[in-house]
């Protein structure tokens, strides 16, 4: 394999990556892999590093960190709406709290599992989501995502978890954050338009735009989602009461919630969600802004080693 570029988030896995990366570095080099590794220093740095590496001629970019780090790296693969390099490849060494994206592809977290992926050299083309929304600075922003985006209680939960320690394991961290959010969260009036047709305009709990199957530290929110089928799975949680939501959580973790009477399920390649800026947006575990938002699927837009 040609020389790789490795983007390492030292504060991932509750800052344990900073301590463990030198050991991982030695294992990779002892296994014969050549690479340049750079540690991120601030939010958005991973996007800058990945983009610079691709422009410098690197073809294989490795993300070392959580879903948020991976999201930043993936955003570095694109510029002005186009891929920087059509034949570039992403490698994910997941070191985060939730590690939801790798669950869909059945990728494991250990260094031995990473070595097996590198040795196999098996490339899969996967879809990428693109969303335009109102950023935190008050301007429209474009962001790419690999796994799941949502507006509603999931985004509020991720925002709460991100602001506090992730020392607990992913599922427990998100479960505790979700319980707190359920107590405080209020359903909102959303309008949802799928592939140009207005499908709903009513009070809802959440709108979930899924490319992968899992979010929230292991919640199987989109059990039927395929990461290479060219469409989003769209799950709309209706005007659920707090007791109804609490009762539904075990079903969502097991992926058995799609038959709930207050849930609606759709598939589509373009989705608009409007609430007049009342709903936070979550993409791959990060909170970059709020709605109104327009989502679009980019079929098989990225190569990934599995």
Tally the beta strands. Answer: 17
Structural class: alpha+beta
What name does CATH use for the topology of the largest domain? Tumour Suppressor Smad4
Largest sheet: 15 strands, mixed
Q: What is the share of helical residues?
A: 25-40%
What series of H and E elements makes up the topology?
A: EHEHEHEEEHHEEEHHEEEEHEEEE
Number of helices: 8
Structural descriptors:
globular; Tumour Suppressor Smad4; 2 domains; 306 residues; 15-stranded mixed beta sheet; single chain; two-stranded antiparallel sheet; Rossmann fold; alpha+beta
Quick gist of this model?
This protein has helices spanning 16-30, 45-55, 67-75, 101-104, 111-120, 153-163, 170-184, 242-254; strands spanning 4-8, 35-39, 60-65, 78-79, 82-83, 89-94, 123-135, 140-145, 148-152, 188-194, 197-204, 206-210, 232-237, 263-268, 270-274, 280-283, 286-305.
Q: In words, what does this structure look like?
A:
- There is one protein chain.
- This protein has 306 residues and is α+β, with helices and mostly antiparallel strands.
- The protein folds into two domains: 4-96, Probable inorganic polyphosphate/atp-NAD kinase, domain 1 (Rossmann fold, 3-Layer(aba) Sandwich), CATH 3.40.50; 128-299, Tumour Suppressor Smad4 (Sandwich), CATH 2.60.200.
- It has helices at 16-30, 45-55, 67-75, 101-104, 111-120, 153-163, 170-184, 242-254; strands at 4-8, 35-39, 60-65, 78-79, 82-83, 89-94, 123-135, 140-145, 148-152, 188-194, 197-204, 206-210, 232-237, 263-268, 270-274, 280-283, 286-305.
- It has a 15-stranded mixed sheet that branches.
- Strand 7 (123-135) and strand 8 (140-145) form a beta hairpin.
- The chain is globular.
- The two termini are 15 Å apart.
- The mean pLDDT is 91.
